[in-house]
Amino acid sequence: MTNQTTHSDVRDLWPALRKGFRRKCPNCGSGSLLQSYLTVRDTCTVCREDLSHHRADDGPAYLTILLVGHLMAPLLHIVFVAWRPEPLVLFTVFAVGCVTLSLYLLPRLKGAIVAFQWARQMHGFGDTA
Predict the structure, then answer these.
(1) What is the average pLDDT score of the chain?
(2) Cβ neighbours of residue 5 under 8 Å, at least 6 residues apart?
(3) Cα–Cα distance list, 23 to 16, 29, 33, 76 (Å)
């Protein structure tokens, strides 16, 4: 069986996810994972880990929509029922809140997805040759 990973090939998932969420290299935790808002670097500037194998695609956007929707929708309902603010005030506050939360989460979730792929050695991250 040639596809079995040895003990030395195992990468810890949760530390990698924490590093990725902080937008740091999942290998060393020091180098920047992103070179701009959402562009992943080809290699880490510190440890030279090859990061070009990532296939994040639309995953970060889907997760961002899922999280923001599940956080803001109940909050919107609670605020509306408890205080009955004016519709324009309610719309303005929640529109700004949704946009701000989305812009905050999107690069962090992209980093976490790239780190997940790195930790699970997906899409060429496990190739040692």
Answers:
(1) 92
(2) 121, 126
(3) 10, 9, 5, 30
